[in-house]
TrEMBL record:
<dbReference type="Pfam" id="PF07681">
    <property type="entry name" value="DoxX"/>
</dbReference>
<keyword id="KW-1003">Cell membrane</keyword>
<feature type="transmembrane region" description="Helical">
    <location>
        <begin position="45"/>
        <end position="67"/>
    </location>
</feature>
<protein>
    <submittedName>
        <fullName>DoxX family protein</fullName>
    </submittedName>
</protein>
<feature type="transmembrane region" description="Helical">
    <location>
        <begin position="74"/>
        <end position="90"/>
    </location>
</feature>
<comment type="similarity">
    <text>Belongs to the DoxX family.</text>
</comment>
<keyword id="KW-1133">Transmembrane helix</keyword>
<feature type="transmembrane region" description="Helical">
    <location>
        <begin position="12"/>
        <end position="33"/>
    </location>
</feature>
<dbReference type="InterPro" id="IPR051907">
    <property type="entry name" value="DoxX-like_oxidoreductase"/>
</dbReference>
<keyword id="KW-0472">Membrane</keyword>
<keyword id="KW-0812">Transmembrane</keyword>
<dbReference type="InterPro" id="IPR032808">
    <property type="entry name" value="DoxX"/>
</dbReference>
<feature type="transmembrane region" description="Helical">
    <location>
        <begin position="110"/>
        <end position="129"/>
    </location>
</feature>
Length: 141
């Protein structure tokens, strides 16, 4: 049974935590690796360099949207392919364990599942621009 009093706050914690992690990862690509370096890395693993720029944008914009609670379902669903791409192309050859050299695929797949769950759960408490308010009211009424 869902505790309708506390569930929206649990969703809020999940939304803000994952948003902060996305924002951090995007800012590392922007400020540490630089956009050109990020694009170069994507090219080095056989992907178009432009995908590096798009990934950086998705992580920064998606992270901010999640933190603020802007269209959580849509944003979370859009981030699932980014994470699965990271698992497949960036970490797939490194095995399962995240502690393996090059990082394994378990961590990005776990985050893809978390984003899928957020896409199902919705905004939670304190969303700036919630998705479907009527569905949220019915779910937590």
């Amino acid at each position: 049974m869902i505790d309708t009093t506390t569930a929206p706050y649990g969703i809020l914690a999940l939304r803000v935590t994952t948003g902060a992690l996305f924002l951090f990862h995007g800012l590392v690509k922007l400020l540490v690796f630089t956009p050109a370096g990020t694009a170069g890395y994507f090219e080095s693993i056989g992907l178009p360099g432009a995908l590096g720029y798009l990934t950086m944008l998705a992580e920064i914009a998606g992270g901010l949207a999640l933190i603020l609670g802007v269209r959580t379902r849509l944003v979370s669903a859009a981030l699932v392919p980014v994470l699965l791409g990271a698992a497949w192309f960036g970490h797939g050859g490194s095995g399962f364990n995240w502690s393996n050299a090059g990082g394994g695929w378990e961590y990005p797949v776990m985050w893809a599942v978390v984003q899928g769950v957020l896409a199902v759960l919705g905004d939670g408490a304190y969303a700036l621009l919630p998705g479907d308010k009527s569905a949220a009211r019915a779910r937590f009424a």
